Amino acid sequence: MKDFRKFGRILLPMITVFNKDDQSVDYKSSRRVARYLKENKLCSSIIVAGTTGEFYTLSFDERVRLFEEIKDEIKNDIPLIAGTGSVYVGEVIKYTEIAERLGYDAVMVVAPYYCKPEQEGIYLHFKQIAQSTSLPVMVYNIPLFTGVNINPETLARLSELENIFAIKDEAGINPLQATEYIKATKAKIPVYSGDDTMVLQVLSQGGVGVVSGGSHIIGQEMKKMIDDFLDGEVQRAKELFQELFEVFASFRGLKNRINPTPMIKMAFELMTGIPTSMPRLPLVPATDEEVEFMKGVLKKIGKI
User: Fold this and answer.
1) Does residue 71 carry a catalytic annotation?
2) Among the options 95, 123, 140, 181, which is catalytic?
3) With contact defined as beta carbons under 8 Å apart, do 219 and 252 qualify?
4) Which among 27, 71, 123, 168 is annotated as catalytic?
5) Coil, helix or strand for 276?
6) DSSP structure class, residue 104
7) What residue ranges in 14-63 does DSSP mark as E strands?
8) Which helix H or strand E contains 13, and what residues bound it?
9) Distance separating the N- and C-terminal Cα atoms of the chain
10) What is the mean pLDDT of residues 266-275?
11) pLDDT digits (tens, 9 = 90+) for 46-105
């Protein structure tokens, strides 16, 4: 298995803060979020401009400045992973070159979305990116949003590239694909669950951890659950998972939101007081009813 230990078990795709008046990026508050995550030890590594960071709404210049601001804030205190994904491979390479120049520890690249490429196109996309950089590259598979799955056979081909070091898989879409990935790559590529609710299921299949937006709120509990499982305390891990399940479910809001980001941002603001609750359109903020609902959930677990 390729070495993932530098990045740890919990990789957190941090929220990007937007101003409430005009939805411009609030870099100062984004730095406060990164500092809070680091100081409260809510994760092993921070991902900047991931899905929870609403990368898809950021302009090129905004994403680059976010890379700069968070690197300046965190320095080398914990590993930083830059979300450099885009549909056009040339743009991904530009972002990746900037991340490498800034001193990021790795990049995470989502599968090309909307265009629904063939598996050969996906392979060539990642191959060109990997060959353009010396940074480790995490492959990000999220068919729910991209409209395309990275098949196990494709990951097996990508595993032959030296700096493809891990995959984040949205395990809720295909609960057994972690096993298929591990078998297809002969256990060469570490698998991270991309779904908070599927952590134990992925670990039980041989996965190594989670990319967890929910860890903005329950990062310490997530770490304990993973540690318990890996230490053989499966019953304790299961009980903690059942306690946290209500929290995971709350991120879907009251109307089963597909994208949990607005609820995570609102919950983080309730917990920390940092003004993070505004998403950027087309996402819309939590409703008053959802705010009251989330307050109840957070009070129940002692976060507010």
Assistant:
1) no
2) 140
3) no
4) 168
5) coil
6) -
7) 45-48
8) strand 10-13
9) 40
10) 98
11) 999 999 999 999 999 999 999 999 999 999 999 999 999 999 999 999 999 999 999 999
Domains along the sequence of the chain with CATH: 10-231 (3.20.20.70)
Question: Contact 126/137 with Cβ under 8 angstroms?
Answer: yes
Q: What's the angle, vertex CA 96, arms to CA 92 and CA 98, rounded to 5?
A: 125
Q: Specify the length of the chain in residues.
A: 304
Distances (CA, A) of 294 to 81, 195, 286, 303: 29, 20, 10, 11
Q: Kindly tell me the burial class for residue 126, based on how many C-beta atoms sit within 10 Å of its own C-beta (0-12, 13-18, 19 or more).
A: buried
Spatial CA neighbour of 215 closest among 17, 92, 31, 42: 42
- Distance CA(3)–CA(11), nearest Å, equals 15
Distance between CA atoms of residues 281 and 150, nearest Å:
28
Q: Given the structure tokens 């995550």, which residue do they identify?
A: 37
88 is catalytic: no
**Residue appearing with tokens 């993070």:** 276
Whole-number Cα distances in Å, 81 to 76, 77, 118, 135, 211: 12, 13, 27, 10, 11
Number of helices followed by number of strands (H, E) in the chain: 12, 8
Q: What are the C-alpha distances in Å from 80 to residues 103, 110, 136, 166, 256?
A: 9, 16, 11, 15, 31
pLDDT tens per residue, range 237-259? 999 999 999 999 999 999 899 99
